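subagent[fold] <- orchestrator: predict structure for attached chain, return tokens only, no commentary.
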Amino acid sequence: MTAARTRRSARSASRVRQAAHWRRPPRPRISVLIEAPEWRRRVPNVASLVRRAANAALAADPPMSTVELSLVLADDRMVHQLNRRWRGYDKPTNVLSFPADDRAARLPRNVCRPLGDVVIASGVTVAEARTQGKSVGAHLAHLVVHGVLHLLGHDHERDADAERMEAMEVSILQRLGIADPYRCDR
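subagent[fold] -> orchestrator:
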């Protein structure tokens, strides 16, 4: 092999390594299920909004492999039933996160891994947005980010964890052009 050919080969290998280093993981697969028609009436381009919010949360704490998740925009009745069955609370809540079971974490990196499901109640979300003086869309985006962070393993049971999770939410929402949902002077 000639010296020039060796240099070209080395440069080519270097470019391949650099390209592999900068390669982004494949985009997550996000399914949006609009189970309650009022979501379409209340939030323009609701499917696009929740996908952007989920992608922003995933970008803030990227999973090691490609993931898939479902965002379910439900009514209060559906969330009430899920909350009663899975959490033992006989009322609706704003957002529920259902992480995929531990077996999904053992899948090879090159396989799309199920992350879980996020379910959001329309009536509760609308009422909270009104009470907090913000748009339904902004509050919905916050709940999606919150729910996806739960799927990624973040929690707010302890004060330090809650502060860390809230800071992540604020940062993610800021990148989406949404004001800090925890500020009192909105």
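orchestrator: received. Logging for downstream: The chain has a mean pLDDT of 86. Helices lie at 3-22, 38-42, 46-60, 76-87, 122-132, 136-151, 159-175.
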